Amino acid sequence: MFKALVLEQEGKVTSSSIQELDDSRLPEGEVTVAVEYSSLNYKDGLAITGKGRIVRNFPMVPGIDFAGTVIDSADSQFTEGDKVILTGWGVGENHWGGMAQKARVKASQLVKMPEDLDSRKAMMIGTAGLTAMLCVMALEQSGVTPEQGDILVTGASGGVGSVSISLLKQLGYSVVAVSGREENTQLLKDLGAKEVLPRSRFEEPARPLDKQLWAGAIDTAGSKVLAKVLSEMNYEGTVAACGLAAGFDLPTTVMPFILRGVNLQGVDSVMCPLAKRTEAWNRVVKLLPESYYEAACTEVSLEETAEQAEAITNGQVTGRVLIRI
């Protein structure tokens, strides 16, 4: 038997409850993992509250990431006792996820735990941290260097935003944060932002082109926020876009792209290839300072997760939420 947070749906109403399940309920997969920690991401919040069409079939165990120890493997890549991490691949959406004491998944979906990392710290980083590292790598690959100017980070109080600030600071970039929560200003500065701008400044309708301010940007919001960011990009600047917290539309024009050569680089961590995923994990572990773990993470129990899910969808969560399984 194992304990799990289970989502069920009646009509269009999603409910969640802690249940004791038999091992026979575990889905198909080559590797069974004793889950030690998971984390709460915005997508998990939408799934648990039913505010977004994340889950396609019920019942479902949510949790798009987890870290733990292999207890059984039918694949030669993994043996009992191996420490592993999973992020993405539709787990927690169409395949039972990490908010349970046990998970069974495909071997190809797992990454071996980097050295000098444990399950707790791995989920303090989690999907959000992996996504942040991929965004930073996208800026690097497009040629954005610290000497070129400020890097803007939207949704800075969230998981991706807070990790992005820490990573950029460690790499020598000058970072300007955007947040709708004034009470987090000092925290964001402690993480590495030199300035924090109000989100309201980026919610006004964007002109096709505005004053050039940013050498690069990491955007977690989409919609009119991203449109405003694009209008203010430097010539040949790059925006790494990874989220849609403000909406999936993009009310802009082609002018930033054809008159300033701005690059809009989409970043996806869900189906990210294994080699790139492994590189990102190894880099983020080396770059994040100990101060990040102390300042930007909140730990909760599995029983407290539903309450936190409501909070994250209402924009009331700062940094990362670690779930102790």
Characterize the structure shown.
- The structure is a single chain.
- By secondary structure, this protein is α/β, with parallel strands linked by helices.
- The chain has two domains: 2-113 and 293-324, Quinone Oxidoreductase, Chain A, domain 1 (Alpha-Beta Complex), CATH 3.90.180.10; 128-266, NAD(P)-binding Rossmann-like Domain (Rossmann fold).
- Helix content is 29%, strand content 28%.
- The protein has helices at residues 42-49, 119-141, 159-170, 185-191, 223-231, 255-259, 274-287, 290-295, 305-313; strands at residues 2-10, 13-21, 31-40, 65-73, 83-87, 102-105, 110-112, 151-153, 175-179, 193-198, 214-219, 233-241, 263-266, 297-301, 320-324.
- The strands form three sheets. Strands 3, 4, 5, 6, 7, 14 and 15 form a seven-stranded mixed beta sheet that branches. Strands 10-9-8-11-12-13 form a six-stranded parallel beta sheet, with helices on both faces.
- It is globular.
- The model has no long low-confidence stretch (mean pLDDT 94).
